[in-house]
Amino acid sequence: MSDPAILLCGHGSRDVEAISEFEALAGHISRHLPERRVMHGFLEFARPTIGERLDDLRAAGARDVLAVPGMLFAAGHAKNDIPSVLNDYAARHDGFSIRYGRELAIDLKLLSAARERIATAEAEAGDTISRADTMLVVVGRGTNDPDANSNVSKVARMLWEGMGFGWTETCYSGVAQPLVADALQRVVRLGFKRIIVFPYFLFTGVLVKRIYSAADALAAEHAEVEVIKASYLNDHPLVIDSFLERLEEIPRGDNLMNCQLCKYREQIIGYEKDRGAAQVGHHHHVEGIGTDADHGHDHGHDHAHGDHRHDHE
Asked: Could you tell me if 263 and 271 are in contact, meaning their C-beta atoms sit under 8 angstroms apart?
């Protein structure tokens, strides 16, 4: 029996660079697993969609697929939207098996990759300012799932203590508080000589570019403080290793998500109404509609969709 095919499930973005980086990641994984068929698909905006890629795999003769979410933390997309697409597809195609892996989560490899990204930004800026005089600002996507949001705070704390910075602040690009601009205005008052802004994201996109713009605005407003921007994780070798590990977990049955603090399974404070919510996707209206390159203009955001407060893990 041939090895299972592999499907990387991305969130999708209007930003062409973000899509290119995700495609590059799929290429890295394919080169590490030359004997396997590796494909990628997107939940929204970009094409191919997850469903289209499953069609491609099935047409190529695949009957067993290992699917992993291309996301750092598990919120609505990883917990509900992607599984909804996968389960619906499997239910409509007898004899076609899809086994779903877990998100990257808090992982020592990813923390090491984050440390390297931050250290590289420091080295490029020069060593004239000590870490004790430096504020580290870690920016997460922001979701309406407190479990995912709290993971960003844990990452920030571990980087702060592990690297010896003077202080850290956790903020988010949207949905969760504090937002980036508000957090930067607050931390600049603390008197640190240097502020490092680090987007804890896998790939670029509208949100990462917005974070960097906020950092530039702070630097222009406060010339007395050195504001430097660290790179997001992207295709760091340890990120690729982490994805390969997630794929190895699936056949062993080690691919369980942490449900102890999941708002859909337990009555988390403030989210009691979400317990037991149906596993239903919410992205059909933007599935495969294209990127900014397809439409020829910049929407300036990753999610319009009215006021649905979509998760962004």
From this structure: yes
Collapsing DSSP to helix, strand or coil, 175 comes out as: coil
Q: Which residues of 268-297 are buried (b: 16+ CB within 10 A; e: fewer)?
A: beebeebeeeeeebbbeebbbeebbeeeee
pLDDT mean across residues, the chain: 89
Between residues 50 and 291, the one the model is more confident about: 50
Side chain identity at residue 253, one-letter code: G
Q: What is the pTM of this model?
A: 0.85
Residues 6+ apart with CB under 8 A from 40: 7, 8, 9, 10, 22, 23, 25, 26, 48, 53, 70
Strands 134-140 and 167-172: parallel
Write the DSSP symbol of residue 81.
I
Please give the helix or strand (H or E) that residue 64 lies within, else none: strand 64-69
* Cβ-proximal residues to 232 (8 Å cutoff; 6+ apart), any chain: 117, 199, 200, 201, 202, 203, 204, 208
Quote the CA–CA distance of 47 and 207 in Å, as a whole number.
20
The distance from CA 229 to its chain's CA centroid, rounded to whole angstroms, is 18
Query: Residue 42 — φ and ψ, nearest 5°?
Result: -120, 150
Contact criterion met (CB below 8 Å) for 134 and 193:
yes
Phi/psi region, residue 296 (left: phi>0; alpha: psi -120 to 50; beta: rest), is: left
The average pLDDT across 137-145 equals 96
Question: What domains are there in the chain, each with its CATH number?
Answer: 5-105+236-295 (3.40.50.1400), 108-229 (3.40.50.1400)
111-133 pLDDT, tens digit per residue, is 999 999 999 999 999 989 999 99
Per-residue pLDDT band for 76 (boundaries 50, 70, 90) equals confident
